[in-house]
Specification:
alpha+beta; FAD/NAD(P)-binding domain; 3-stranded parallel sheet; 3-stranded antiparallel sheet; 36% helix
Length: 192
C-alpha cells in the first residue's frame, strides 16, 4: 500500500509528536510513524519529567538559547491543555566552601542564559524548602518544574490529529531513498 504525505515524522516521542503537531497545524499532510505499539515508549517515557530552566546549559549554546523560551512555552502549553505540571522549583545544593563558590558560577551562567529569578540561599532557607536536605547553601531556581510527560504527549497527539495529522503505530521504517519525485520511505507493518 502506498500513502502520500507532505511530511513523514519518524518516531512518536515528545519531539516527534511536537514536530508532527507543528506540521499539521501549519496545514501540511503529516504522518508520524512509530515502530512500537504505542507512542512514547522509549526515551520520552523514561525521562525525569523535569522542566529545565536553563541553569547548567553552556552559555551561548543552542540549549541555552532555547531554554527560557522553551520553558515558558511549555508551561503555557500545559496550562492551556490541562496537562499536569508544577512550577515547583529546584535547589542545587552545596556542601563546603568549594561547592558554595561554584553556586555563583551556576547563577552567573543561568543569568547569561536569560534566567532572572535565581538566588543563592543559606542552609536555613534551603531547609525551609525541603526539610530533609542538609547543605551549607543552595542555588534556588523557582522556574524549574515537572511535567506529566504522558499527558504532554497525549495533548500533542490530540492537537496533531485534530489538525488532520495521522499516527501510524507498529510501523518501523526499514529503508528510504531520494527519488526524482520526492522521498520514498519503506515502512514495515510489523512493529517491535
Amino acid at each position: 500500500m502506498t500513502e502520500r504525505a507532505d511530511a513523514i515524522v519518524i518516531g512518536a516521542g515528545v519531539i516527534g509528536l511536537a514536530v508532527g503537531r507543528a506540521l499539521a497545524l501549519s496545514g501540511r499532510d503529516v504522518i508520524v510513524v512509530e515502530k512500537n505499539r504505542a507512542f512514547g515508549e522509549e526515551t520520552s517515557s523514561r525521562n525525569s519529567e523535569v522542566i529545565h530552566a536553563g541553569i547548567q546549559y553552556r552559555s551561548g549554546g543552542m540549549r541555552a538559547q532555547l531554554a527560557v523560551k522553551g520553558r515558558d512555552a511549555l508551561y503555557a502549553f500545559c496550562k492551556s491543555r490541562g496537562v499536569h505540571h508544577a512550577r515547583c522549583g529546584k535547589l542545587l545544593v552545596a556542601i563546603g566552601e568549594d561547592e558554595i563558590a561554584r553556586l555563583a558560577h551556576f547563577k552567573a551562567n543561568g543569568e547569561a542564559n536569560g534566567m532572572t529569578d535565581l538566588r543563592i540561599v543559606d542552609a536555613k532557607e534551603a531547609t525551609a524548602f525541603e526539610p530533609n536536605i542538609r547543605c551549607d547553601a543552595a542555588l534556588y531556581s523557582p522556574s524549574s518544574g515537572i511535567v506529566d510527560s504522558h499527558g504532554l504527549m497525549l495533548a500533542l497527539l490530540g492537537d496533531m490529529e485534530n489538525a488532520g495529522g495521522v499516527l501510524a503505530l507498529s510501523s518501523p521504517v526499514t529503508s528510504g531513498r531520494v527519488t526524482d519525485t520526492g522521498i520514498e520511505i519503506d515502512v514495515s507493518g510489523h512493529g517491535y
